[in-house]
Structures are given as C-alpha cells and as structure tokens.
Amino acid sequence: MAKQNAHFYPVILAGGRGTRFWPLSRKRRAKQLLALNGKRTMIQQTVDRLRPLAREKQFWIITNEDLKVEIGRQLPNLARRQTVAEPAGRNTAPAIGLAAFILLRHDPAAVIGMFPSDHVVADDKGFRTVLQRAVDLAALGENIVVLGVQPTRPETGYGYIETGERTQKDLFRVRRFTEKPNRQRAEEFLASGRYFWNSGMFLWRADTLARALREHLSETAPYLEQIAAAFGTRKFEATFRRLYPKCENISVDYAVLEPRSAKGEHASNLFCLPVNVGWNDLGSWAALYEYSARTKQNGAENVIRGANSFTLDAEGNYVHAPGKFVATVGVSNLVVVETDDALLVTTREQAQDVGKVVKYLDEKKMTKLV
Amino acid sequence: MAKQNAHFYPVILAGGRGTRFWPLSRKRRAKQLLALNGKRTMIQQTVDRLRPLAREKQFWIITNEDLKVEIGRQLPNLARRQTVAEPAGRNTAPAIGLAAFILLRHDPAAVIGMFPSDHVVADDKGFRTVLQRAVDLAALGENIVVLGVQPTRPETGYGYIETGERTQKDLFRVRRFTEKPNRQRAEEFLASGRYFWNSGMFLWRADTLARALREHLSETAPYLEQIAAAFGTRKFEATFRRLYPKCENISVDYAVLEPRSAKGEHASNLFCLPVNVGWNDLGSWAALYEYSARTKQNGAENVIRGANSFTLDAEGNYVHAPGKFVATVGVSNLVVVETDDALLVTTREQAQDVGKVVKYLDEKKMTKLV
After folding, report:
1. Which of A22, A330, A346 sits opposite B330 (nearest CB)?
2. pLDDT tens per residue across span B166-176
3. Nearest chain B CA: its distance from A347 CA (Å)
4. Which partner from A367, B27, B199, B242 sits 20 to 30 angstroms from A116, CA to CA?
5. Quick one: B210 and B90 in the same domain?
6. Does the CB of B323 have a partner CB in chain A at under 8 Å?
7. Structural domain of residue B315, as residue ranges?
8. Same domain membership, residue A27 and residue A107
9. Is the ipTM of this complex over 0.90?
10. Closest to B147 measured CA to CA, from B104, B204, B101
11. What's the angle, vertex CA A46, arms to CA A42 and CA A49, rounded to 5?
C-alpha cells in the first residue's frame, strides 16, 4: 500500500521540446503534453503515477513560457505557483537546483525526486514500490539515489550507470556515469551485467542537493538562492528573469553527479536502485511503435491510430491519422503521421531524423509548423 | 487551324467509377471529375481538347445518376439535355449506340467520336490534327476509325490493335483487336511494330454504327431505338428506365469491332490511325506519378501535392496532401494520399491494388468512404 510521504516533493521537468514527435509535437504542444500511448498525456501519466506517494500540493513542474498555459490546463489540480516557467532554458542543474533552494526554505527535511515528464512505465505499482524505497534511502541523509533501468539491448542512445559494490538486495554503489557509448561499448556494458541505463530519475534531500550545488556550481548557486528568496513575493518574476539566464547551462548529472563519482571520495553516497517496470523513454515514433506493438496481442503488426483501417500485405507500420479511415497496402515499417497542417512520411529506421524537419522549419521561419 | 465540324458529335463516356484513385475518387466524385494533373478536371480537359473541332451543342456526355449533377457543375456551358445519365451501367455498346440512334434522328450525316473522359494528352494540338483526319475519314461512309497509340513499353494492362496493310501515310487497316496480353505476347507486339494500344477512341458515322448494332446486337438495338424515339419527350425518363437495363452489357469493341475484324469480310472498313501525342490513361496513382514526374524538369523525383515540402533521403514518392506541409524522410516509391476522411499508404508498385480497398469498403457498407 503506497503512502503519501509528507516530505517527498516530486519535481517534474517539463521544459523539453521533443521535436522527434513532429508533426504532432510543437513548440506549444511538446511531447510531454501529448497523449501518445493512451488517453492521458505523458505529463498527466507522470503525475498519476507519482500521486499515491505525495500530496498534490507537493508536486512541482519546471517548464517554459511556451508550455505553461497548456500544462495548467492538463493538470488543473495543481496550484499555479507549483508550475515554474524558466525565462530561459538552462538544462537540469539550475532547474532542479532552484527547486531545492525554494523547498529548503519551507521544509528542511524535503526529499526531492527529479522526474522526466515524457517517459512511460508499464508497471506503475512496481515502480512506486521501488520509488518508495528510493525516497526512504534519500531521506536518510547524504544519499543520492538514481533509478537505473536494466538494459535489454545494446542501446547507444542512452547514458549508462556503472555500478560497483552491492550493499543491499538490489542496491548498488555508483562507480561512474558514462555518456552515450558506441555500439561495441554498449555491447560490453550489456554483457558485463554491471551497467544500467540512466533513467534521469534522481532522489536527494534538498539540503544535500543544495550543498552539492554550492560546491560544484559555485557561481550559479548564489543566483538560484536569490531567486528562491524572492519566490512568493512580487519581486519574483523580475528576479527570476534577471538572474536565471546567468546560470550555467548544464545537466545535473554532469554538474554534480559525474564529478562526485569520478573523484571517488564522495562516491560512497551515490546509489543506483534498479527498476524493472517496463520503462521506456519513447524517444521517437519508432520507439512509440515498438512500445505500442509490444503491448498488443498479435506480434509485430501495424499500429494504426485512426477511425478504422484496412491492411493488405502491410506490416510493422505506425500510422497516426485520428478520425480517418487508414488503408495500408504493400508497405512495411513505415511511420506516417498527419495533423491538420502537416504530413510526415518516414520509416521506423529513420524516424530519429524527424528533428531535422523541425530544424529546417526553424531555419525557414515557418513558425506555424513548429 | 482547327475547324468546327458541323456534323461531328463528340460523345464522352463518363460513367466510370475509377476506384483506383481512392481515396480521392468516390462514387459521386469519380476519376473523370478530379483535377489529377492540373487545375481542370479530366472531363473538363477532355471537352477543352475537343472544343475547337465541334460546337458545344454537339457534345454529348453519357454518365450515371451519381455523377450527373457534378458534371453539370463542371461543364456549365453544356445544356442539361446533352448529359444522359444511364439508369444502369451497360458498358460502351449501349451507351454509344443510344447516342447514335438519337443523333441519327436529327442529323443523318452525323459523325460520332467516342471518347473516354479520364485520359490525358500532352499535345492537344497534335491530337486535334489527327482527330480531324479521323473525322474526315469516318465521314466518307462505311469507315470505322480507331485511334491507336504507339506502344512505348510491353504494357499488359491495355488491349492492342493489330494492324495490316498500310493504305495511306499513317493509316492502317485493322486486322484484329486483342484482349490484354501476357508479358511475353506484349513484348512480341512491341517488337513487331504492327501493334498499337487501343485508346478507346473510335469514330463512325451514326448510320454506320446504327447498322452495325442492328446486325451484331439485334436484341439490344430495338430497345435503343425506342429510347431514342422518346428522347426530348415527356416519356423519355420512363422509357429509358424501363428499356435500358434490358440492353446487353457489352463493350462496343467486343460487340461490333472484334466480330467484324475476325470475320474478315468486313475488315476493309476498319482503320487504325496512330496518335503520338503523349496519351496516357492515368490508370493508377503510379501512372499519375509517372506522368507528373515525366513532365517535370529534374528526373525521377518526388511528386508532392501539398502546400510546401521537405525531403531527406527520399525519392520517387507521390504524395497528395493539399494544403499541408509534407515531410518525406528516408522513403522511396511510395504513394500517400490523404483526404478529409481517409489516408492511403501504398507503393507505386502495388498502387493497382487500391481497388481492393474500395471492394472492402463496399462489402463493409462503409458507404461514406466509397
């Protein structure tokens, strides 16, 4: 039975653009705001998944001005102040750091969980069981806990966590974080059994994170503290707008976690807790196809989001055409996505290149389409 | 300089359904009513092409009830009585036969030209030059003239005309009409130089055709004569509805021309006049792609009917998505067509199977989609 932790604050990072889901994703309708794998959007699913572990008023959303209004619409139970819109994107370290400094002023025992807003988990209940353990471990003091996903393939698109000593059942010390490997390294990682995918989900006490930021981002931390001090006052917007862009544009992994693991002396408090709960970052239309096809009964079939469909000599296709009758004849492994103003035709293999379409549209200043 | 022939009556057959252009073509918006290769629809282009050779009041359109209203809209200069809607489809022999019997009552010197409504011709002027010669030949008396297209490939989808003696410059006697050949036969036809594609365009005097029908369709001809006698009276609709469905369902080629050529004794009045004017029957989305790509400058490229487009590692695709931005990434030789209610994804190679989608929709009684 899940419990609502009085000091656990889920901080959901929702400032990404998710261009690889173009033409469905747009600047004001980023991936996390789309219902890609069901009726609820990715960010709604993220909140739904975490809600049994924390009261709604403990949630924080970090996003940008383009997305703030739509997020408010999708999460009507959160108060307006729980959604912070960055005046400029500065990656995860300033975002989560600001949350830490704000929370610390109100709850010295705060435990922060950092969560992407655009991933899916098949086994929500199993996920919460592991997460509750992570919250408890982080609450103990200096511990930093990262959720690691058991790799199932030599994926070259993710960062990996190398683990060392196993200190408890399914709890490992972190030796180091690694960048995306090449294919050969990824295969070695998979074979060794000591590597986990970096899920981007971290847990710390707010004071632990604040201390780490003061140590490793000594120029940025004071800006964040000043912004946090203004939070809830009339000065906040102006202070935020003035100081936040001065913060270093850096990920929390790179700013805080990697130096710690590399140095070694601090490594003792970095832990990896594996999660085997059907995690998927849905990084592209191809990933969405695989996720959708996997969860259906009849194998590697077509995934058709339409009113109705007819298929002849066609397999492995992903077609998104809501409300339309979709006929696929003699085609395989395609991705076809249509919206009111755009049509994408690509292959599952090349679906990661969809970002290049958005780049083109950006360059051509075809702003209505991005 | 083209002249308007006082006795030349173009009869345009516009009752076909053209299911291979689904989802653009529908029961009430058949292929001939679509603007597939320009701004004018196929039937508008057909009339435009012939207009220099005959006054508008000399045109006849044979169609069905589903298409009659839209044809009236597309050809506003034709009087309502010039469009005849068959109460039941009975192929070309009864259709052109009825036209012959009607015309004969008003103009004993009438020369009828039978024309499909859904083909294209690149060189309209060249076409008219040949056609004027055909009109003149047909007007002479018993002659039946068929326009033959010089084959450019061993096409197995067309009927062929085997020619015999060359009687004048570019005028041949017809030896026989053949059904669609297999590949080997088609290659032999192409190599021999004596075969032409049957364009479906025929010319006769109305009295010649009437005589042939009385001879070869002795049961059907009296029905047609009765219907023709009622034309222009209040009895016409009822008579038409009662008798036309009793007519034999047969093509004019099969009913009149093939028996004549096979018998031999009548062969002397059957002539083939070659036309080399960029004729194309646009039989499928693939044919439309080839026609459209051929008429553009830069080779075997993508043909995109959209508001705008972006292409990466993509070639040989036909995409129809009017008003939309179309992105093709890493795909080749596809056909993608979208309408308000449907999306077709197929290959140029398998585009001829699109009719099977319509068959499925017919069977499922999804009437809005057909």
Report:
1. A346
2. 998 899 999 98
3. 6
4. A367
5. yes
6. yes
7. 285-369
8. yes
9. no
10. B204
11. 135
